[in-house]
Amino acid sequence: MEANEKLYYDTNEVAEMVGCEPSALRFWEKKFPQLNPKRDSRNRRRYTERDIEVIRKIMHQKDKQGRTIKGAREQLRRKEDSQLLIQRLLRVRKFLTEIQEKL
To answer: Model pTM greater than 0.70?
Structure first.
């Protein structure tokens, strides 16, 4: 099975993929509600592609943009809020378009 076909990655695999320490991943899990890896039957963390994407965003905020943990957490929250708002607006637009077509 190729790497891009995997559904879950363990902590060491993810740390190697993104270039950080496993302890940083465990720390960020506590600080960022967006980062919530699943646990297997042996209570080991299992990261999805979505989790890895969040980790990369955290690292970008910290390393490239020089944000603190608090600043990075706030930035990610704002981005999520704006994406939800965009999705809602698109649904409203679709609904209004359907109404207009029926008139």
So the answer is: no
